[in-house]
Design brief:
The chain is an all-alpha fold. It has four helices and no strands.
């Protein structure tokens, strides 16, 4: 699969090509690539782009999805948000 956000971008033709296809500024894609994580809202676009390029769909670990918190133990009181 893809070892990093940079690896993903390189496999998809570089950050300028990806940005152009996604309708984003190249600097935006480059900044997220350099930070090592893409916004979760980009996942569907990357999945579609993978299909267009005949590449595997990237793993969710490269995106900023919010994980499900661990379940509370019985007797544990909830906290107000």
């Amino acid at each position: 699969m893809y070892a990093s956000t940079k690896h993903l971008i390189d496999e998809f033709g570089g950050y300028r090509e990806v940005a152009a296809r996604m309708g984003l500024k190249a600097t935006t894609v480059h900044s997220h690539m350099s930070a090592g994580v893409f916004p979760a809202k980009w996942f569907a676009a990357f999945a579609s782009l993978a299909g267009e390029k005949g590449k595997p769909i990237p793993g969710q670990e490269l995106f900023s999805f919010v994980p499900l918190p661990a379940p509370k133990m019985s007797g544990e009181r909830g906290r107000a948000a």
